[in-house]
Amino acid sequence: MRSGEGSESGAGRPARPGAGGVVSRPGLFWRLGASGRVTVVSAAPGSGKTVLLRSWIAEAGLAERAAWVPVARGEGDPQRFWLAVLGALRRTAPGSGLVRELTAAPDLDGWAIVERLLKDLAPLEDRLWLMVDDVHELGSAEALQQLELLLMRAPDELRFVLATRHDVRLGLHRLRLEGELTEIRADDLRFSLGEARELFQGAGVELPEPALVLLHERTEGWAAGLRLAVLSLAGHPDPERFAAEFSGSERTVAEYLLAEVLERQSEGVRLLLLRTSVLERVSGPLADALTGGSDGERVLQDLEEANAFVVALDARRFWFRCHHLFADLLQLELRRTAPDQVTALHQVAAEWFAGHGFPVEAIRHAQAAQDWGLAVRLLGDHWPGLQLGGQAATVHAILAGFPGQAAEADAELAGLVAADELAQGSLETAERYLGLAARGSASVPAGRRGQVQVLLGVVRLLLARQRGNRPAVAEEAQQLQAVAEAPEAAQSGLGEELRGLVLISLGITEYWTAQLDDAERHLEQGIALARRIGRPFLEFTGLAYLAAVTVFRSSYARAAERSRQAVELARRHGWTDEPTAAIAYVVPATGLAWQGRLEEAEAWIQRAERTIRPEAEPTTGFGVQYVRGLIELARGRDHEAVASFRAAERLAGRLAAPQYLVARTRALLVHALVRLGETERAEQALAGFSDQDRDRGEIRIAIAVLRLAQGDPLAAAAVLAPVLESAAPVTVRTWLAHPFMLEAIARDALGDPAAAGRAIECALDGVEPDHVLFPFLIYPAPRLLERHARECARHAAIVSEILGLLPAEPGGDGKMASARLRGAVEETARLIEPLSQSEIRVLRYLPTNLSAREIARELSVSLNTVRTHMRHLFAKLGVHRRSEAVVGARALGLLAPSPRAP
């Protein structure tokens, strides 16, 4: 009996399998039961073909209606084969009364047997299954032709199941075209993780989940591999260690693969398999380079067709690989039989991969051959492309393959290690290796010295960018720009890549230092260049930061769209966990927090927090902590807000120059401290600023918050005056709502309701385009807002929404005030003219947070069409703003009521 297959050599009918160790596979059982006239089960040895068919026969209750015919190894006698078929059919219930007995005779012809069998079965009325196991062993071409004849002419109720290790010549293409052929192949037979778990549990083997997952990955779901593991694990003292070490060199697996696969191959095929076992993937030309032959491609394709544990990796069938366990066995055999060839084989592979444009594999084989000089040169040559291609993790893994102290003696390798340490977030270690490389650069061969200098320049640029050091970035950018314009750089294509890196690095640093005009210009140029030269990682980085710039220079909707593009690019290329992705996640978190949509903001900021390493990425970490503080402040979780703003300030201390966010962070920190009643700590926080810094708009706002808390509205109004008059401007236009709301509170406290009303009107004017609610959440004044809405209906809809979000005031109720305001708008709502169907479709999207462009995309129309419909909507509803249109439409029953409506 073969391990894992259980093929029988004598009995004509399979025995009913026992319950232990047999896994029910209902999906495959269903396919077998619903199959056409012929079913082919084709897969490598040990894939579970025989076990599957036996289990299905038992499960479906077909023992009396299934004729089982095992083909003996190397069967070349058609007469013996057909007599076995007749005997098996006669032992079934339907066939016993139809198929006549026949005995062997020297002149008995296989064709005559088939004709007789067709005549006997012509009256067949009940379903009968003829199951031929190991069809590949049928070595007689004549017998195969006779079997094909039977397949074509058999009565409808006779169904065939053919189990084979590889496809045989039976003319099955005709059945395939007629839809009468069902094919179950290796991929279908692989055990899923759940089926592997059931197999182990059925055998009474308890295996921890991580060990089970590892074992399933190593065996690739191969049935025999899993069953052999079950046998080896019985009574094993350390199952987890066994799973970690399980391979094709494990004795029972090795014996099986040697006997069933390797020893069945010709000498030339064995040589190819052994020599190419040093590779993770192999092509025909590469196999020829390692064997000195010329037919590698044909041999690999034949092995795949024969299900000999060789798998094609692409549709063209150019690249192949061996099953993991088979590869383990081949490597063991190579080391046992030809250990002196291993190094030379790796060297040949390194040269071939390098010459055919596969640098990563070339480097790994150079390392395996311990040709460290070649490995360093190859990595140095291809590092820019790997870095700009978003393959920092690949570079990190490659560098781990060098000896521990190698970088101490090789300046180029030291530079590469510096770049890797920077990518991993170890800024201080990166600086140390950068210094080591600079000191040793004189020892670099003259032919490579220029290339090493470019490497060190790029690392210095990236390090300065990480620290937000704009002068250093500008200096390195200027030097790299000169390199990029050199003829040799242009010829190699490196020039444009360096220019793209320089532009985006400048833009990022300018963003962190509040040079927003320059940042936008450089980022847009860098993104355009990245797209032109086909560098999606550069494009992704630029888009993420351009979205961040757009938050402060344009609308939240446009920033969100750019962020969406960056996230989509990251998802497409597998970069969603890259530190740069944190910036793309922070942008929607910022916009949503300012709009008061805190639950949605929370989801985005959590993604950013999972991605970023704050100490390694101080600039990005600073931004993440700042937005976390915004969200906590809007929620009223003031202790958590203080912690976040403090963390942001600590990260700012690691940066080369003060960042423009620092003043805003300190301003919001003061506000959180004031809300906690810690006015003394708030004063101390403000005391750290110079007179020049205290004159910044954001700091003046913080001082006003503190003065109001101290009961001095007059001092608050005085400190706000330069901000309101633009003499002390704020960085972001939406921040203007802060001083106006504080001005309204101060003027109301001073007994000047008219001035308070004017200030609230200015605050609402500033925030309505982007629907910014944050200032009204952290400076809650529901009484003032309600009074203002009664006196001026221009902003009634947004005021209603704000009041619906605010907690109740002592002696009042924000939600009740919101309801009263909605009622005022609803009372005046009327439809001047009926809406068209197109206008109604647009109206349904107005309560959402989609921009007009996004609505156009949803409706598959142009942006101009949506804008035209919106203008018509506003005119017919007699309103001027989107929020007012929503309130009016709800009052008229054109839209469902707001979920926040009482």
Folded structure, characterized:
By secondary structure, this protein is mainly α. The protein is 65% helix and 4% strand. It is built from 50 helices and eight strands. The strands form two sheets. A five-stranded parallel β-sheet has the order 2-3-4-1-5, sandwiched between helices. Helix 34 runs antiparallel to helix 35 (638-652). Residues 1-20 and 809-828 have low confidence and may be disordered.
Give the low-confidence spans: 1-20, 809-828
Radius of gyration: 38 Å
Mean pLDDT over the residues: 82
Helix content: 55-70%
Q: What fraction strand?
A: under 5%
Count of alpha and pi helical runs? 50
Query: How many strands appear in the DSSP assignment?
Result: 8
Cross-sheet strand order for the largest sheet: 2-3-4-1-5
Main beta-sheet strand count, sense and barrel state = 5 strands, parallel
What structural class do you assign from the helix and strand content? mainly alpha
Q: Shape, please?
A: globular
Query: Distance between termini?
Result: 75 Å
